[in-house]
Amino acid sequence: MEDIPSISLSETQVLGVKYATSLGGVVEDLWLSLTETISTLTWGPFLAFCKSQVLGALGGISNGHLTIIDGEDVYIFGAEEEPRALLHVRSGEFWTRVALFTDLGLAESFMSSIVDCDDVSKLIKLLILNREHLIPSLNSFTSSLLARGRLLTSYKFVGNMTNSKANICSHYDLGDELFHAFLSPDMNYSSAIFSTVDADLIGVPEDTLEDGQMRKMKMILQKGDIRPGDRVLEIGTGWGSLAILAANTIPGCKVDSITLSSSQAAVARKRISEAGLSDSIVVHEMDYRECFLKPEWAGTFDRFISVEMIEHVGRDFLAEYWKVVDWAMKPDTGMGVVQSITLTEARQGV
Description:
By secondary structure, this protein is α/β, with parallel strands linked by helices. Helices cover 44% and strands 13% of the residues. The two termini are 33 Å apart.
């Protein structure tokens, strides 16, 4: 297997986003150095401790079957049932990373080629089925402490006007080829709605991903009660799929869509033009707070839609986000729909 340089956990998260201040950069560099050093430690007693922590947590697996081969040692967990997964540990660093950084440490281990798996999809299913036990078991004092430490370098991700553009571009401008590789043709990068709950977790779902995405988009338009002739504000364009569906299926519907991603804006405009909807949809490359710079928008929108964009806003800016929405909506009749990714309270701060 081709050797891949080791990447620290924090480096996988920053994605080229840099601090605007030199002090923040110094703190970040120190933290990157510390986490890189700790996560690659294979010193005997420390490695033994990390390995025992991980093996102890995996001992609680009750759904599925997991085999781990580490040199001459073989560890077997669970029952003789599906899903079944086989892990080959290539370096003791694997145990350190998983013990310290849990799920992100596991992902990073694959990136650094210090662990192999015969079927990653089955491994993920197995971990999901056992998550109620694994999450609290692996969230040790050490991993929790290091998670708190990462907050020292998280200021760059605060959703202010200075950081938001860089944060969005570092993710969504990675290249359209990447997203084309795993999204359905409609290019929806958000949760789909399948006809059966958890259908994608228990086997091959009856719906295709495209079916699920179309069901999701239609439900949003239905719940938003978007009517012929309505003017719609969309915060978070994506690649334009929802705006295109709205303009295509609701007579006279006009959409103003906002995005900070230059790449997504370009693709969305191209798709809108190819659909013959340039007179119905306008994509604005701007921050949602810049709506206030368009005074003609005040109180003019009938409906508001936003799909998995609010996660980028940040808790400190939620009030400002809703202030923009309230300002743009018609005072008495305006309404909207927001789809967001949520996290259980047990995972907050982890």
